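QUALITY CONTROL LOG
STEP: pairwise intake check
CHECKER ROLE: data steward
CRITERIA: each record must contain a sequence immediately followed by its structure tokens, with no blank fields

ENTRY 1 OF 2
RESULT FIELD BELOW
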Amino acid sequence: MLLSVQMPLLLDLTVVLGVSILVIIVLHYLKLPTIIGFLISGVIVGPHGFSLIKADHDVEMLAEIGVILLLFSIGIEFSLGKLMKIWKAVFFGGSIQVFLTIAVFTALAYYYSYDYLPIAIFIGYLFALSSTAIVLKLMQITGEVGTAYGQIILAILIFQDIAVVPMMLSIPILIGSTENLGADLFDLGWKLALVLLFLVVATKFIVPRIFKLVVKTKSKELFITFTLVMCFAIGAITSVAGLSLALGAFLAGLIISESKYSHEAAGYILPFKEIFTSIFFISVGMLLDLSFLMEQWVEILILTAIVLVVKALIGGLAAGILGVPFKTILMVAFAVCQVGEFSLVLAKQGMDMGILPIEVYQYFLAVAIITMILTPILLKYSRAITNFILLKTPLPESWRKKLIANNSKALALLAGEEKKYNDHLVIVGFGIVGRRLAEGAKQTGLQYVIVESSAQVALDDKDHHVVYGDASNTEVLEYVNIKKARVVALTGVDLEQNKLVVQKIRGENKDILIVGRTQLQEETEELIKAGADEVIADEYETSFEILMLTMEEYRLDKSSIVRLMHRV
């Protein structure tokens, strides 16, 4: 009783996280992402579920910290240099996606429900935004932020976060309550200019010097404190300027990314980020009104389907205009088809200001949260769905080749003129394992070629023969002369992608030796069934390395260690 009176937030967090643990354990056996577990947990404990928590406002505050830390960590992993390289994707791809989505949903809302244009435009605003938190969280887990389609998705999401500001500023215009629009815009403009100036000065002069002083103290606590202060301080500055806290946190991450301490900072922030982002997803689930959902489930499901399809088509169109391959277009479409967390903030503001009717607000909440729940599933299976569309659907073969083919830039050889390979090694993936294998092949004089799906990684390397493309693409395999190759080494751990690549290669060359890699020992059998000859599991090799090092410390001779490893 004393605990519930004095520390309601602590009790609520215990209940919330306890329920989420049970839900996620169940979903683990169903092989569903943990984010869905947090969303479902929010529905269970929320005011429309079993009302298990009382301090819901405090939980919302912790959730906002989660979004801030998520964007901060994304900024650290990115960099100002990378952001400048994708500025075209940010402003062209992002603007096309946002403005076209607003136009389409405004037209739909105006025609089918409301002949009052301000409400229709505001509904267009709500559906123009996607979930930065969910999409980037999932892409962080799978390591896809740095891929070609990952950077386009990030570019579109960055523009959406920027677009939130003018959307909020325009609400008074829509309801006719603004007094001096010009003054408001001028005020925002000079504040933005100051923020950008501060960003440049802090990156070049202030942060590196302070970091140097902090590191000299060799105090882990001081390092963590300074990193968090950077995150929240710049978030507060952008908030004062009229931008969102989350966007400020992203900018803070960009500033730190330019320092040599960025990896250490990211490592320290990770535990904080994980717990607070988990609370964010729970808080989103708490908004769903189950009784309203049960009463209007047919209309809500129809609206959800319309939102997913329309947003996917527009997102794919925005990516297509940037000139990327069709496979990338489909991956982007799956990633941006949900409704975003900033839409929830915008909707609440619209309802408070009287522009959004309460019934529309409930429909919107239900649709938004359902699309968020479906997003982890769509992203998890997006690669498999994309490959099915490209390879299994009854398309004319000429169409299929055009859709699968990479553009001229994608097939550009980055180490000079095309070479006619024979009896060579094909390395799929150019991460740490791929680079070491390539260096070994180069040192021993073996003929080799590398296939890498990340444009940036491929373009940055000048020491090896790298082809940018997807190894499951028939034209890419023809380009590296797969029929004459002796060995293929799959250096990535994406099981589904590796299975697809193995099947494609085996169809082209039945005698080639295919060496694969998986993360878990239990996955090796699946890759062998797909057609691989030898498969190495990371956890298996790591266990033997640790065993060997441990036995060496106990002074066992090498022959005894070898016999022990054979017995194990």
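ENTRY 2 OF 2
RESULT FIELD BELOW
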Amino acid sequence: MSTGSQGARRARRERTPEEGAWRVGRGQAGARGRQQAAGRVENVLFERPHRQHFYGLPLSPPRLRRAVDEATRAALLREAGEILQGRWRFFTFADAPSDPTPGGLTDWHRCEVTGLYADPDACGPASSSHDPEVQGRLRTIWEKSRHHHTTVLAIAYALTGEDRYATGAAARIADWILANPPQRGVNWLSGAEAGLRLMAWAWCYELLRAHPQWGVWFGPDSPLWPSVHRHQEFLEEQTRPGASGGASLLAALAGQYVASVTWPVFSGSPGWQREAKAALTREATLQLLESGVNRELSFGHHVWATELLLLPALLGERCGDAFHPAYLARLARAIRVIDRLRGPGDLLPRYGDSDEALAVQFEPRGAPRVDWLLRVGRDWLGVPVPEPQGGRLGATLLLGDDRVPLRYEPEAFEASFAYPDAGLYVLGSGQGTPREVRVLTAVGALGSTALGDHGHADALHFTLSVGPQEVVVDPGTSAYHADAQWRRYFRSTAAHNTVEVDLQDQSTQAGAFLWAHRVGAIAQLWEPREEGGRLVASHDGYERLLGAPVHQRELDLSGRLLSVTDHIGGRGRHHLRLHLHLHPDCEVQPESPDAWRVSWPGGALRVRFDGRLRVRCDQGETDPASGTTPLGWYSPRYGARQASPSLRATLTATLPVTLHTTLEVL
């Protein structure tokens, strides 16, 4: 780190974020940025044209308070108070916030988990060569620079009118601009990060309008303008035709559109708005299947992508730039997918990667993840979903407090249903009862992009829940860059509830987001029934092995009994492992050599294996077959992991082999 950077860091540590941040920003970052963007800021607008509206704003504190329940308000203000102390509530800090910092200062290049720093002066390839053992966890550093916490402070000001929240939000924007010159450091690596940051700043800009210092913070000498301009130039470069797709591209495009509409102050603003809208319209078709399921086959990315498609479209409608009805129809289907896949007790699926990404933070971190999204989909697009319990704060900010919610009966759906174009099948029985059984299985491709970057080697894997309790689970994600061994495990076939052949993954991992060989899976039979259903599917992931093994699985749910039949065709002698990973809440007891009782508070089921299999239960171990890789772990949220019970049944036999397993809810 350079001497200048060390001095700047010391100077920032000697003051609180509220002590003259905008003055410092104007004197340093602002002057530097205006030289770079000289003559490009045209007609800075301090009053929005009458035809334009920023979502559901403006809302006075009394009006906003009337629309928000007291528990949500208290939780958001508690989180805002922690933010002013420099404390965080994301990832590993979800249950207990991180330690406070001197003066509540944010260090934009420090990883709070490891205590390591990314070099703020690194440029180009130097900043992209990010070693988590040297510079900390990139995703943790990025989360701060997305400015969700700054938006929380601005919402707290809108709820209370208290000066400390407004000055805290404004100071953090100026502080980030000062500490992150364009094209330097890890916070300038990704178009997605720049887009999310611009959306957060746009919300702060609008939510703080009532403050007496708003004109000082966002006036003609503000460091915001040259930084916004450089962000939008950067996004133009990052979103050119041919840019890699996925939700990260949507984040860049959404930020470009929202910023162009919110601040039509540059010569490039009309073009940026037009091009971002066209690209979003194209990506909605490319990234969402006809059913509305996101092509990445990651439920976390499905929710994130849906938010990123919704926010520009809603702003466009409010500002006279409505998106095409076909775009809105596909968006509505994506929202309905979320509601249908959400299980009893608001259980959300966990297939594929999830790093808990938010488009904008409208609710406290502990609030239900999708309630505001479902509420806006219901009240704006008319998506026939039940009214969620929560989400009122986010929906009010987006739609205003004078909108009359739509009143209608939600569509009635069968307990068993499928999205064949995505390879997602749900077997259900006992719908609406305390012991409702839901089985979700994945038969689709390994992600949508050429890389399959957010998919897992989980073909024919299934999960099972009983009422609101997860029982047979997807392991989750744990981390992206922090530890290659853990990344490999949580994406592996051994970490999922399917059959593993010769200790190999179905698809071959070639890096943290790469696959050298990708499985192909297909459903041969789908028979939904009133109380269950039957699915037969197969995959070719192991045909590359000697003897060309092919795995076919039949799942048959009848009431509270799930029968699983695995047929492994092919030739030769092979080692087979059938994995069943259980939620950490579960306790496992053997009843006989081939039967195990799985219990949790309020329920139990019995697992019975084929008598030829050798079965053991372990948790949080090193895989005895390899001697090196983990086995029996569960990631409750991004950045965290814990040991969980894992039933593992093994057999070495000459193919073909057929194995029968039953799971009976007691």
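INTAKE CHECK: passed for both entries
DESCRIPTIVE NOTE, ENTRY 2: Residues 1-8, 10-17, 24-40 have pLDDT under 50 and may be disordered.
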